[in-house]
Amino acid sequence: MYTLVWTSHFTRAAKKFKQRHPELNRKVADILLDLEKDPFQPHLKYHYLGGKYKGMQAVSITNSYRITMTIMITEKEILLIDIGPHDEVYR
Length: 91
Description:
This protein is of the alpha+beta class. The chain has one domain: YaeB-like fold (2-Layer Sandwich). Helix content is about 35%, strand content about 30%. The protein has three helices and five strands, in the order βααββββα. It is globular, with a radius of gyration of 12 Å.
């Protein structure tokens, strides 16, 4: 089991995301629960980022939306960084 650590930025972004995309609220909640259980489940489409985001990872909500994060394996923690459209979370 992993612990999700919500940064203040992620908390604000999640609130905005929830208001803008109420149809995805259940899906995001399910993804966060699955991240706590095992972030490497295939349906999460977990992937490493490169370039200026090296050291970070992301999971897909849909083809257009992502959650970016850093996973600290030794601590069993997932530091949630951002949520939103693909082009915005990778800015």
